[in-house]
Amino acid sequence: MKSIVAYICLTGLFLPLLILYFNKGYRTANRYLAGFLFFASLYLLETFQFFYGQSLFWIAFFTNTHYFFYLIGPFAFFYVRSILRDNSRLSKTDYLHFALFGISFLGYIPYFFSGWDYKVSIAANILSENWDMAPFHINKIIPHQLDQLFNVAHTYFYSISLWVLLVRYRKTKNNPIKKVPQYQLIKKWLLLFMGIFSVITINFTVAMANMWLYDDKSVFLDRASGALLFASIVYVLLNTMVMFFPHIMYGLPFDHRNLAENDAKVSGSPAKIKGGSEENPSAADFQKPSSSKIEPQLFSPDYVLAIEELLEQSIENQTYLQLDCGLSKISDEIAIPAHHLTYYFNNIKKESFSNWRNNLRVAYAIRILSDDTFNQLTIEGIGEKVGFKSYSTFIRSFKKVTRKTPSDYIENRS
Known about the structure:
By secondary structure, this protein is mostly helical. It has helices at residues 2-21, 27-52, 56-62, 72-85, 99-112, 116-127, 144-172, 181-213, 217-244, 301-316, 327-334, 338-348, 353-369, 379-385, 391-402, 406-413.
């Protein structure tokens, strides 16, 4: 059993590094998830060393990491909230979630600078039968027994908070969300995530209660070893889900606004700038065709079609001509999460958002240059009119599409 727990802990420390390195999809939310997995694994490893470790060095080392426990709940909370709200930004009041971590860290500072012999003596006490750490006053602000109470209360607070988030999210949705596969996957994942967090909370309470009841370490291990093993097995389910179902990295496929409101079919061909020809091309002439290779587990064909239709509506509205047109602006306009648009452009359309937008702007600029009244504007003025903030960017984008500068294009026309 000892080796199983150790393996689970080490795997849990390694997995968050992979999530951060191969971070795709909902990036900031995934950082919260990686933080949760890392600090939860770190706490499990600390607990494993205290209960079963035989090395004074490693036990002394992990006495320096206990305050990280107070990051587990906040990271779980911000992860779930980011997925449900499609917004990962922290407000000023959100930083209060890290108050206990900050206080505990400050209380440990004197211990950080204490001598190694002193730390080894504490480790030796943990190895002994009488493993009471209260007399050592490791944390100068929070006494040991109060810290244990805070551990339990902190875990319950965030376990309940996760379910409150889900209930509030469901209440804000007046209309049922479209049942695409990605939504179903994330819904089940969040329920599993919160369920496991709640199970671990209850299991943690049982283990802590046994610690308070039994002063002898051997008696405690005999009574509570099953609880530790159970917590480890339950926790490994989270790692398994992330490893074998990487699509959970992409969050919910829809904003809180009901996409059904935008589901009306766009009649005719994709929105184009009229007058398309070899000399006066349309916007659609510069748009790369969407890849037919769609990942059904992540973006169903219906979902991709909905995104394309909404983007066509945005083209009709000529949002791309606005100076402040960025991915977030398009996301707000068509009610599709920004990280889903990023995935759509990069992995399905095989084109960056900026390239898609600039191609549309160049196509509109060509329309202006093909008009007999274009002499009323300078080339720099045309670039600004079609949405380019920088003259050099306009020239570079124009040449990339037509292989000519605007001046050469005008000369060839005449």
